[in-house]
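User: quick one, sequence for these C-alpha cells?
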C-alpha cells in the first residue's frame, strides 16, 4: 500500500509539473489567456479533444504532441494508481472484517473466560480496573491512552489460589479450536494476535503434560506462573483492541462486550434500564 501511494505521489507531481509547463507554453506560443490554455491542456491530457480550442502554430502543435505523449501517460498513471489504492483499501477492509470475526470467535469461546479467571487471581488488579471500565463514551484517544497505560502494568497471578486443574480442563477443551485459528491464513498478518494464540496453546501443552497440578515444586510453579502471565498480558491488550474495533464498526457487539466486561464487578448481560 505504501509503495502504491509513493507511486501515486510521483505521478501526481509529474502531472502538475506537466500541466504548469504546458499551460504557460500555450499562453506564450498560441496567445491564449490562462483559462483557455489551462482548458486546452486538460482536454488534451484527458484525451477529450472538444476541438473548440486547438493549436494553430507549429510550436503549439509540437507542444500538444509532447503533452499527449507525456501528459496522457502520466494522467493514466494517476488514475491507475488511485484506483489500485481504492481497491486495495476495500480488500484490506474486507480482510480486517474477517480477521476480527475470528478474533471475536476466540474471545467468545475462550478468551473472555480466561481473562475472568486470570483477573480474579491478579492481586494488583485494582491498579488498572478503573482503566478497563470501557464505556460508550470512549474516544479513539481514550483507547490509545489506556493501551499506553497498560504497557507499564506489571501483570501478576497468584498461582496458589488459581485452580490450575480448571484452567487445564478449559484449555484442553478449546485446544482444537485454538489450533484451527492458529492455522487460519487470515491471521498470519495479525502478528500480535497470533502470538497470543501461540502463548495460549503453549500454556495448554504445559498443563497437559502434568498429571498432578497440586503438588508441583516451586521452580515449576514459577515457570507456569510466567506462562500464565504471558497469556494474561496479551489477552488484555488484544481484548482492548477488539473492543475498539467493535465500537467503530459493530455497536451491537460492543454493547454486549461492555455488559460482559470481565473487569467489571457489576457486569451483567441483562439490560438494567
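Assistant:
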Amino acid at each position: 500500500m505504501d509503495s502504491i501511494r509513493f507511486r501515486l505521489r510521483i505521478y501526481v507531481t509529474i502531472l502538475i509539473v506537466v500541466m504548469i509547463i504546458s499551460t504557460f507554453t500555450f499562453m506564450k506560443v498560441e496567445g491564449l489567456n490562462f483559462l483557455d490554455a489551462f482548458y486546452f491542456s486538460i482536454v488534451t491530457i484527458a484525451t477529450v479533444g472538444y476541438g473548440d480550442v486547438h493549436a494553430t502554430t507549429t510550436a503549439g502543435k509540437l507542444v500538444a504532441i509532447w503533452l499527449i505523449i507525456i501528459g496522457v501517460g502520466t494522467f493514466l498513471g494517476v488514475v491507475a494508481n488511485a484506483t489500485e489504492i481504492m481497491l486495495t483499501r476495500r480488500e484490506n477492509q474486507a480482510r480486517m472484517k474477517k480477521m476480527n470475526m475470528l478474533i471475536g470467535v476466540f474471545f467468545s469461546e475462550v478468551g473472555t473466560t480466561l481473562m475472568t479467571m486470570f483477573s480474579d487471581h491478579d492481586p494488583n488488579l485494582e491498579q488498572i480496573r478503573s482503566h478497563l471500565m470501557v464505556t460508550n463514551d470512549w474516544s479513539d484517544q481514550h483507547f490509545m491512552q489506556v493501551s499506553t497505560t497498560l504497557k507499564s502494568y506489571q501483570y501478576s497471578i497468584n498461582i496458589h489460589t488459581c485452580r490450575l486443574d480448571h484452567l487445564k480442563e478449559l484449555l484442553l477443551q478449546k485446544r482444537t479450536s485454538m489450533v484451527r485459528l492458529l492455522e487460519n491464513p487470515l491471521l498470519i498478518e495479525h502478528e500480535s494476535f497470533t502470538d497470543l494464540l501461540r502463548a495460549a496453546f503453549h500454556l495448554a501443552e504445559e498443563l497437559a503434560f502434568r498429571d498432578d497440578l497440586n503438588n508441583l515444586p516451586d521452580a515449576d510453579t514459577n515457570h507456569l506462573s510466567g506462562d500464565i502471565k504471558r497469556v494474561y498480558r496479551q489477552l488484555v491488550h488484544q481484548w482492548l483492541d477488539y473492543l475498539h474495533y467493535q465500537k467503530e464498526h459493530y455497536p451491537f457487539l460492543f454493547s454486549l462486550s461492555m455488559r460482559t466486561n470481565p473487569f467489571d464487578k457489576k457486569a451483567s448481560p441483562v439490560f438494567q434500564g
